[in-house]
Structures are given as C-alpha cells and as structure tokens.
Amino acid sequence: MNRSVLLEKLEGRVPATQGALIVARSWMHPERGRVGCPAHPAVIAAAEEAGLAVQVRDLGVEQQMSGEPTRGEGTIFAVSYEDPGGGFRGLAVGAHRADVAAMAWASEEIASWRSVMRTRRTITLGPADSPAARSGDTAVLAGVFPAQPGTRGSAWAACGCAVQARCPAARDSESAMRSFRARGDEVVLVGEPVWGQGVDVPVASGGGDLYRVRSIRDAEVLTACAPDRLAFVVAPGSVSVEVAQLLAVLRRKFPRLRGQHPDQWCYTMTDLLAAARSALAESDVLLLAGAGASPVAAAAQAAAALTPIHRISALGQLRPRCIDVATLTIAGCGARLGGQVLQVLSGLGPLDVLRRVTRTESVPMVSPVSGEQTGRVWS
Q1: Do 176 and 185 meet the contact criterion of CB atoms below 8 Å apart?
Q2: Measured between alpha carbons, how far is 262 from 148 in angstroms, rounded to an integer?
Q3: H or E segment to which residue 153 belongs
Q4: What integer pLDDT is reported at residue 65 of this predicted model?
Q5: What pLDDT, in 10s, does the model give residues 286-329?
Q6: Which of 10, 35, 57, 232 shows the greatest Cβ crowding within 10 Å of its Cβ?
Q7: What residues form DSSP beta bridges with 10?
Q8: Model confidence pLDDT, tens digit, residues 219-246
Q9: Is the pLDDT of residue 64 over 70?
C-alpha cells in the first residue's frame, strides 16, 4: 500500500473562492480516476475546530463525466493510494491560490494525514452480547460501541450491564444483604467496583454491622464484633479474581464465614477487564472515544497501565498523532463517534476491525437424584 501513495499539489483543477476550504467527499485524479474519501469527515471537523469555513463537494465528478475540463483558480492538495480491495482512496482539500492562510492549512493538513496512512489493526471492546461487525462494513461498525449518554440503551446498572439486559445482580446483592442483616449477621461488602457504586445499604436492616473490604489490607485488618455471625455480599461491578483473593483472606480469618451464592455474581466487568487487558497487550494506543462514561471505557482505563491513552470527545479532536500506530484499541462511550472514527480509519489505509470479547456464564447444575437445581447456600 505504501508504494502506491501519491502526495500531490494540483493547480487550477477546481473553482474556488477566497475564505473557504473545499473538502472532497471524492475527487477525480487525472490518471487514477475516481478517488473515494472515507476519512474526509476528520478533515471537515478539524477545519471547523480551527474556525475555517468549509464547503464539501465531489470534486471534478461532473466535469469528468461530461468530458469538459475542470478550470478555476483553486489548488488541490491531495493524497491517494491504491486500495488492495480495488480502486483508490485518499483525501483532497482545495483552496483559492490567493488565500495564503487556507493554502497553508490545506497543505499541512493533507501532509499530516499522509504521514499516518498505513495498514492498521483496530481492536474494539464491547459487551459480549453486542453484534459482531464485519471488517470494512462501516454501516454496522457503530454496533460495537455502547450508546451515548441520554440515548436509548445508554443506562447502566451498578454491575456494568445495560439496564435493558435486566441483570439481577444488584437486586440479588441488595436482597442478600437485607436477608443477612435481618437475622442479625454482620455483613462484609466485598470488592471494589470498576464501574458503579456497588450496592446500597438498606435503611431498615434489622441489625448487624456493615463493613467494607476493598483491598487485601482491608481484609487483613478487619475485626468483626461477632465472628461467628459474619456474612459477605459481593459489590456488583467488582472483578471476580479480586473478590476471590479477598474472600481467601476472610475465610482464613473467619472460618465460619458464609455469604452470597456465586451464581448471583455478575461477571460483566470481569469479562470486560479481561478483554481489555488482552487487547491492550497487543496494542500501541488506547483511544477513548466519547464524552460520557461507560463500563467499557472504565474497564479499558483500568487495564491501560502502560498503554498510552488518547481521549477524544468529538471528531475534530482526532488528530494524526492519535492513530500513528499499527494496532490500536478503541473503547467507546458513544456509538456515533466510535463509528465515525472507524470510518475515518477505513480511509487511511487497509483496515482490519476486530472485536475482542470475553464471556463468563453460570451453568445451572441439576441434581442427578432429585432432578432439582442445587441450592444457593455457600459458605
């Protein structure tokens, strides 16, 4: 692909007016023919961020089809490459040759995007039940990102699941806490949620103290007033590996500890964190795309200990330096912006879009004697 890249300045190819940039949706190369520009929204957004007036056109298409030569006082700054899938892609920005500022901006902008044109892998993170995207199909790529705050499907439960998924984890944790405290048990709320606030403490609890154990140190120093009546509840949104480590310490200190059955735990954040760690282990950059917050973005940030992070809340903030890598992971807080980013990437070189998913499921166990499911008591 790199061997086919052409960075060009084409004089007198387009009618232009002073004070406005012309950004091409597509354009006609004198030798290569029609050049598609999937990445042109990034150029438009950058120009608008810079306070420049923008006109969006299909440059030279009409003139080429009618056989008439294109004339004008504009200059096109363009870059194009041969797409392995067929045809040509690239970018083109036109400006009036007397408009020095617009000419300089267009030249620098095209050169900047040309510097990051390459074959690229993009790993997306999303809930395990989100639809799989087909590589190169920008019409369905937005489906791998969660919805923006305020849009349908954007509400998240304390455990990290979408509200419409109707995950019972938070309700089960609250119910278990009420049950334990109603019979006078002291309750340990175990875990540190990656997303959300865990579980609310019931006001009418019926007695018993409540403790929080978020770390190994918390577990080591915990002193219960009634060690023989100690129970635990898992904070929804916690990572199961960390919860298991905390419970190992608590069981050593309090052998009669009992608690919430593990089939009530939610593994959404555990799975998202595992997927994020796996993706980031082979990525050069984490791109957080969106203005709000989501469990996916929270898991990605928690996993990105050594991976550089670029945050953008609008397409105009997507600059070449954000994507100047061979492999990047995108964690979205909004479907629209995530889809736009993938569209732009698809116009900057051959692109492979991967979806990294981890899924843990609780399998109901049936007694071979009675044919009934096993009980939910765990100690």
Answers
A1: no
A2: 32
A3: none
A4: 38
A5: 999 987 788 999 999 999 988 999 999 999 999 999 999 999 99
A6: 232
A7: 76
A8: 999 988 889 999 999 999 999 999 999 9
A9: no
Rg (CA), the chain: 28
HEC-encoded secondary structure of 18-34: CCCEEEEEEEEECCCEE
> Rounded CA gap, 239 and 303, in Å?
12
Q: Which residues contact 240 (CB under 8 A, 6 or more apart)?
A: 265, 267, 270, 360
Task: Render 61-102 in DSSP notation, one character per residue.
Answer: HHHHHHTPPP--SEEEEEEEEE-TTSSEEEEEEEEETT-HHH
In CATH, the number for domain 120-159+269-356 is: 3.40.1010.20
Q: To the nearest whole number, what is the mean pLDDT of the chain?
A: 84
- Alpha-carbon distance of 336 to 142, in angstroms, equals 6
Distance CA 8, CA 79 (A): 6
Q: Which CATH number is 168-264's, of 3.40.1010.20, 3.40.1050.10, 3.40.50.300, 3.20.20.140?
A: 3.40.1010.20
- Which tens digits make up the pLDDT trace of 30-50? 899 999 999 999 999 999 998
pTM of the model: 0.82
Phi, psi for residue 346 in degrees, rounded to 5 = -70, -15
74, burial (CB in 10 Å: exposed 0-12, middle 13-18, buried 19+): buried
Residue-by-residue DSSP string for 202-266: PSS--S--EEEE-SHHHHHH---S-GGGEEEEEPTT--HHHHHHHHHHHHHH-TT-EE--GGG--
Three-point CA angle 12, 17, 18, nearest 5°: 110
Q: Which pLDDT tens digit goes with each residue over 358-377?
A: 999 877 776 666 555 444 54
What residue segments make up the domains of the chain, in order of their start? 2-114, 120-159+269-356, 168-264
What single string gives the DSSP state of each residue in 276-340?
HHHHHTT-SEEEEE-SS--HHHHHHHHH-SSS-EEEESSGGG--GGGG-SSEEEEEES-HHHHHH
Residue-wise pLDDT tens digits, 143-174: 455 554 444 445 788 889 888 888 899 899 99
Give the angle subtended at the CA of 270 by the CAs of 240 and 205, to the nearest 5°: 55
